[in-house]
Amino acid sequence: MSSDRPDGPHSLGKLLGNVAADIQDLVRGEVRLARSELDQKLDRVIMAAIWLIGGALVAFAGLVVILQGVAAALALVLPTWAASMIVGILIVVVGAILARSGLSMLSLKTLTPTRMASSLQKDVNVVKEHIR
């Protein structure tokens, strides 16, 4: 009669020690994966914040130009104010596009750590199979 264990029978204590070590390695790996994924998500949030701030600054500059155009229109009633208004409106549109791009980068769907969740689910399934 042959044994399926090539290195002979193990004691229950040694088997439990091996399981504990494997679980420890698994947890460490999951923590590393979570940290790596969260670092990537944090980089995305920082980039989105930069775009939001940039968009807000450009829109503010556009508002200043629009207000200068209104002031010129009221003061002189010359075509110069129309040019100022057109430039100001274009700058506000560009700022709005930049800000919207930044907001879309901050959606919760793009910030969810999906790889970590998937990996944890696989680990749970493997543990369940081995417990049966």
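the 2nd protein, sequnce then structure:
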Amino acid sequence: MSTKLEILDAALRNALGSQVQDLSTALDEVTLTVDAAHYLSAMRVLRDHADLRFEQLIDLCGVDYSTYGDGAWQGRRFAVVSHLTSIEHNWRLRVRVFAPDDQMPQVASLTAIWRSVNWYEREAFDLFGILFVGHNDLRRILTDYGFIGHPFRKDFPVSGYVEMRYDPEQRRVIYQPVTIEPREVVPRVIREDTYGLAGHETGAGAKG
């Protein structure tokens, strides 16, 4: 760990104390995990504490861990991951919080701390169905208003649930159940039986 990251690690532990659920460093990046109950207060500390000063939230996304590690994951299903930047100290931080309820995932909204998070939270709601408590305009932003489900969830079918088409009789676009039959496409790779084997005739001929 570089000296700069060691300083950040120590500053985070000192400022947040018991609110630090997990703190790890990999590939020169620090990841902080906080509990959902302390999420809002911890984020305020990250922004306001003199030793941290993360003035900017530059990204936020949802994560579905349901198939993480080929099914080996035993933790909560949904998480929200934020990326913060401190201009004053010239460092970055990744913050992760897990929603306590897999059936109704929700965490506090950060719109009162960083205004830039508004559309990011709407996107995470739209694609993952994560609810952000305190967001005053939590509606879909990428899919349309008639869309059913949340397409970035791991159990969402690739073909979706509905399709739309133009109906010439009604003279408008209508929604209907998907007519595409779900199937798994496996690419076929055809090679001769001796491909890649030592002593292959083509290889032997090339040597001659």
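Helices lie at 3-16, 39-48, 118-128, 201-207. The CA atoms of residues 127 and 152 lie 5 Å apart.
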